[in-house]
Design brief:
By secondary structure, this protein is an alpha+beta fold. Among the domains are: about 15-115, PH-domain like, CATH 2.30.29.30; about 370-745, Beta Barrel (Porin), CATH 2.40.160. About 30% of the residues lie in helices and about 25% in strands. It contains 13 helices and 27 strands. A hairpin with a 4-residue loop joins strand 12 (about 460-470) and strand 13 (about 475-480). Residues about 1-10, about 115-125, about 255-295, about 310-330 and about 335-345 have low confidence and may be disordered. Belongs to the OSBP family. This is Oxysterol-binding protein. It comes from Certhia familiaris (Eurasian treecreeper). InterPro entries: OSBP_sf (IPR037239), Oxysterol-bd (IPR000648), Oxysterol-bd_CS (IPR018494), PH-like_dom_sf (IPR011993), PH_domain (IPR001849).
Length: about 750
């Protein structure tokens, strides 16, 4: 209020806007805090400072449904549903001014909502577009009423003439039967004229009623539009506060420590106010529990010569420079990777020269919220999306990108130890996420029967084939054979949900990897990917969850944990940690790194139980040798930010190639048009392809109904190059490669391929 709180209000209580300082209850720790309150259009909003009015509103309450109460000489209590504000003025006079302003604003808000009269002066004047929308139909109705009036006059004129003629006939000397019939016709004509007059009167009454309610319709329409605008502004405001909080936390490294210590005295996520409701304050009154998912183990670096722990080497293993382990039989000696453009084998032919750039991404603006607000809670694969949200690659090509660091598997073949081999497999499983750190665009949903081949047998030693084997739910089968001594296959179903502020992508299905010489068979599953700031703000992607890699021959295991990003965590972003253990549960290696940069492996020489954590869990202390870098991400090509952040491999995936199947993703016209920068044409082509696919699906559904009526079995869609089998390891029904594709390519016999493009 006035006085020491900041002076008198900015406007008298009778005006439309009322501003001033009041004290607001926050919580037990902070008590009452001074806030700048603004009363306008039936809404009471507050800010920390007057400067915040331009960008950050701390809370708003609608007075039309609020209850106003006074506790004592200076206090005001506002409650609206589950939200309650406890306010205090500097004096009783100041409190009375605010109460008067609040009561007047409440009455005005109620009148604006419920006023039925035409001459009410409380409502705001409608815009010219609103008037035209409402007056247009009224003008049309008036015109139609004039037409009806003209018709009524004609009917009355001709009806009168008809009655005169019938009256003249009655006066003539006609047989008795004729006179009765003429009298009946005369009565019917009179009834017809009365009915037409009643119809005209009813139409006139309808027009009068429409005119009398026009202002009411106008107010209702304006109210709905204001509600929609207010909702959009609130969402945008929340996103701005989210980004401001993120920047503030990044600039205050000591905040995480203070926050964690505060949480030990507070069980709930936020402090409850004295009056029983949660405070609307943001970072001043929010407290977070300490990270419960802290690593279950601690690593310390040991002396590689003596394998003894000393007080001087307790630093984190990731801070040491990789050193030799002096293990003669270790394949880690050759773990330093070559770049993508370097040769990886003497037995392979020189690499074919492939393209190193694509046309730059056009700068087209599009309102994402206008499209996504109707899609909340729906399956993403069922939402029609323009290509503006896509990248010019299909999901089959994104799946093939998992092979970018295939050299890890080539090196794993040379490992004699299964646990050592597991380290390379674990690094390979993490490397597949490195391309996603900047790739927030959505790949094209493949059409049913669409394929993608990547034949690098002569250059890199492997060939890959993907096929879309199901459309709803979307599922793709993938098979890779390497002459270097390994085979990989997977059947992945993508489940995705739009949650309003973020998008969750959950790959379902197992990945299988088998080494030919040893027979080691590894199985693992992917983690959840989350795209944040869908509505407002800069898009960013995160990976979270756990991967368990199991060698079903030796029973070795590797548990990898992808730590979700947190503003208040002291860990490095995108952190991945894990332990490789044998069939007996003995730990042999510690894996550490980040999924967007590198993965390291440290050999364990000794393990012991450490102190018990605050959660009652006992952590294991691993004494390790210096770490070895198994995998490091390749640098992105020059100008990658204008080429959808594609890696060198991704730039080549959609490069036109000869002799591929007619169902190959490279031949998809909408994807090709988008890559060329012709997005409008790509959108038209995308709709054509999707409608063509829907027609095929409707025909297939009709065939299924017909077969059911005839008592016959209907197999549905049968994949071209894959077949469904029960996996002997997992027991799941998966699609595995049945052969025939590469033979068909050699013969250029694609007669079995459907026309999907």
């Amino acid at each position: 209020g006035g006085g020491p709180a900041g002076g008198p209000p900015a406007a008298p209580p009778g005006s439309d806007t009322y501003k001033g300082w009041l004290f607001k209850w926050t919580n037990y720790l902070k008590g009452y805090q001074r806030r700048w309150f603004v009363l306008s259009n039936g809404l009471l909003s507050y800010y920390r400072t007057q400067a915040e009015m331009a960008h950050t509103c701390r809370g708003t309450i609608n007075l039309s449904t609020a209850h106003i109460d006074t506790e004592d000489s200076c206090n005001i209590v506002l409650s609206n549903g589950g939200r309650t504000y406890h306010l205090k003025a500097n004096s009783e006079v100041e409190r009375q001014r605010w109460v008067t302003a609040l009561e007047l604003a409440k009455a005005k808000a109620i009148r604006m909502r419920n006023n039925q009269s035409d001459d009410s002066g409380d409502e705001e004047p409608a815009s010219q577009s609103d008037k035209s929308e409402l007056h247009g139909p009224l003008k049309t109705l008036s015109s139609k009423l004039e037409d009806l009036s003209t018709c009524n006059e004609l009917i009355a004129k001709h009806g009168a003439a008809l009655q005169r003629s019938l009256s003249e006939l009655e006066n003539l000397r006609l047989p008795a039967d004729s006179g009765e019939k003429i009298k009946a016709v005369n009565e019917r004509a009179t009834l017809f004229r009365i009915t037409s007059n009643a119809m005209i009167n009813a139409c006139r009454d309808f027009l009068d009623l429409a005119e009398s309610h026009s202002r009411k319709w106008q107010r209702l329409l304006q109210h709905e539009r204001e509600q929609r605008i207010r909702l959009e502004e609130t969402i945008e405001q929340l996103a701005k506060q989210h980004n401001s909080l993120e920047r503030a936390c990044r600039g205050a490294p000591g905040l995480a420590t203070g926050t964690a210590s505060s949480s030990s005295t507070t069980k709930a996520g936020s402090v409850q106010s004295a009056k029983g409701e949660a405070s609307d304050e943001d970072e001043e009154t929010e407290y977070f529990d300490a990270m419960e998912d802290a690593p279950a183990f601690i690593t310390v670096t040991a002396d590689p010569k003596h394998h003894r722990r000393s007080g001087s080497n307790l630093s984190g293993a990731s801070e040491d420079h990789p050193e030799d382990w002096n293990l003669e039989d270790s394949v880690f000696e050759s773990s330093n990777q070559s770049s993508y453009n370097e040769s990886t084998g003497k037995d392979l032919l020189p690499r074919k020269r492939r393209r190193t750039r694509i046309p730059d991404k056009p700068n087209y603006s599009l309102n994402l919220w206008s499209i996504m607000k109707n899609c909340i809670g729906k399956e993403l694969s069922k939402i029609p999306m323009p290509v503006n949200f896509n990248e010019p690659l299909s999901m089959l090509q994104r799946l093939t990108e998992d092979l970018e660091y295939h050299e890890l598997l080539d090196k794993a073949v040379k490992c004699e130890s299964s646990t050592e081999q597991m380290c390379f497999v674990a690094a390979f499983s993490v490397s597949s996420y490195s391309t996603t750190v900047h790739r927030t665009a959505k790949p094209f949903n493949p059409l049913l029967g669409e394929t993608f081949e990547l034949d690098r047998l002569e250059e890199l030693g492997f060939r890959s084939l993907c096929e879309q084997v199901s459309h709803h739910p979307p599922a793709a089968a993938h098979h890779v054979y390497s002459r270097r001594g390994w085979t990989l296959w997977q059947d992945i179903t993508i489940a995705s949900k739009f949650r309003g502020k973020y998008l969750s992508i959950m790959p379902l299905g197992a990945i299988h990897l088998e080494f030919h010489s040893s027979g080691n068979h590894y199985v693992w599953r992917k983690v959840t990917s989350t795209v944040h700031n869908i509505i407002v703000g800069k898009l960013w992607i995160d990976q979270s969850g756990e991967i368990e890699i199991v060698n079903h021959k030796s029973k070795d295991k590797c548990q990898l944990k992808f730590t979700p990003y947190s503003y208040f965590s002291r860990d490095v972003p995108r952190k991945v940690t894990g332990v490789v253990s044998d069939a007996d549960g003995k730990a042999h290696y510690v894996m550490s790194g980040t999924w967007d940069e590198k993965m390291e492996c440290s050999k364990i020489v000794h393990s012991s139980h450490g102190s018990t954590s605050t959660e009652g869990k006992q952590k294991t202390v691993y004494q390790t040798l210096s770490p070895k870098v198994l995998w490091r991400k390749y640098p992105l090509p020059e100008n990658a930010e204008n080429m959808y952040f594609f890696s060198e491999l991704a730039l080549t995936l959609n490069e036109p190639e000869e002799r591929v199947a007619p169902t190959d993703s490279r031949l998809r016209p909408d994807q090709r048009l988008m890559e060329s920068g012709r997005w409008d044409e790509a959108n038209v082509e995308k709709q054509r392809l999707e409608e063509k696919q829907r027609a095929v699906r409707r025909r297939r559904e009709a065939e299924a109904v017909e077969a059911l009526e005839e008592g016959e079995d209907y197999e549905g869609y049968i994949p071209l190059w894959f077949e469904r089998k029960v996996d002997a390891v997992t027991g799941e029904l998966i699609c595995v490669y049945k052969g025939g594709y590469w033979e068909a390519k050699d013969k250029q016999d694609w007669s079995v391929c459907p026309d999907i493009f």
